[in-house]
Design goal:
The protein has 92 residues and is mainly alpha-helical. The protein has 2 helices and no strands. It folds into 2 domains: 49 residues; 37 residues.
């Protein structure tokens, strides 16, 4: 009876190991494909709700406005220099 129980035990252990070789990768892939979209959505919602993102957007828009003002000032300075250069006469 013990030999027969041992054979059954080995059969059960072998079946469990063989099944786990196939099932573990399949289950892990299923979990990955199920959780990835949920985690991405969670991160997007979390980042959209953070007050830091609003502050960061405001800071970026202020910096963009400052860059635009600086470009306008540089353009005016270039025009003034182009106007002044012929009036100054030839360089000596």
């Amino acid at each position: 009876m013990e030999d027969r129980a041992l054979v059954h035990l080995w059969f059960i252990v072998g079946t469990v190991f063989a099944g786990s070789i196939v099932l573990v990768p399949l289950v892990s892939l299923g979990i990955r494909f199920a959780l990835k979209p949920l985690l991405e959505m969670y991160v997007r919602v979390r980042s959209a709700q953070s007050p830091e993102s609003e502050l960061q957007e405001r800071r970026i828009s202020l910096l963009e406005a400052e860059v635009q003002a600086l470009r306008h000032t540089v353009s005016q300075l270039e025009e003034a220099e182009d106007f002044r250069r012929p009036l100054a006469g030839p360089p000596e």
